[in-house]
Write a structure and sequence with these properties.
With about 200 residues, the chain is α+β, with helices and mostly antiparallel strands. About 30% of the residues lie in helices and about 20% in strands. The chain has 7 helices and 8 strands, in the order βββααββββαβαααα. The strands form 2 sheets. Strands 3, 4, 5, 6, 7 and 8 form a 6-stranded mixed β-sheet that branches. A hairpin with a 7-residue loop joins β5 and β6. α3 runs parallel beside α4. The termini are far apart.
């Protein structure tokens, strides 16, 4: 059993201690798809298909769930770079993803500490977290250093009507869409190999 790790402060700057979650490997695609579907903020690089695409490019995807008290706390597709059969680099793109929309500082710390403990050596993480001073402080306490700025993503709620979505866009954007529509371009939806062979 892992020993508890201390996190210096939580969101209210109070000392807290947390125990590392247990990591469970997931090989079944159906189970992984269900886990991704349960995430409040899923990301494409954590999908099963994306991991298999990376496998075709030479990476080894490992899918793990971080368990606490028999309930999933977070999950991640971990990509192992093994050019000669030896793991030289580990990447996590937009993960681990949490099942709580607003995970506590202690949970963020525990999940990333468990990830770090299992995958020693070079580890690159593109966190699936809101960039905030609290998040940066928690990751800094784990010894993780920021290397790249500028990786951003956006989220559009599709719960609003089409008219509400359209009105929320800026005027220049709406004008560009209208100008594009006037060109008469068409979209051909096809699954025939000839339709995409030129891109490959």
């Amino acid at each position: 059993m892992d020993m508890p790790l201390s996190l210096a402060t939580d969101a209210k700057d109070r000392p807290v201690a947390t125990e590392l979650p247990v990591l469970r490997d997931v090989a079944d695609r159906g189970e992984w798809d269900e886990l991704v579907a349960r995430a409040p903020f899923p990301h494409l690089p954590q999908s099963f298909a994306y991991g298999e695409g990376k496998r075709a490019a030479g990476w080894r995807p490992r899918r793990v769930v971080f368990m606490r008290d028999d309930r999933p706390l977070a999950a991640a597709t971990v990509l192992e770079g093994r050019p000669l059969g030896i793991r030289l680099l580990t990447r996590v793109n937009r993960g681990p993803f949490f099942f709580d929309a607003e995970p506590s500082a202690a949970d963020i710390f525990a999940v990333h500490a468990a990830l770090r403990r299992r995958w020693r050596g070079p580890l690159l993480i593109g966190p699936s977290l809101v960039d905030s001073s609290r998040t940066r402080e928690v990751l800094r306490k784990l010894g993780l250093r920021r290397r790249v700025d500028g990786w951003t993503s956006g989220r559009i709620s599709l719960e609003r009507s089409e008219e509400e979505l359209w009105a929320s866009y800026s005027s220049p954007f709406r004008n560009q869409v209208r100008q594009g529509e006037k060109t008469g371009a068409s979209i051909d939806v096809s699954q025939a190999p000839a339709a995409y062979r030129w891109m490959v």
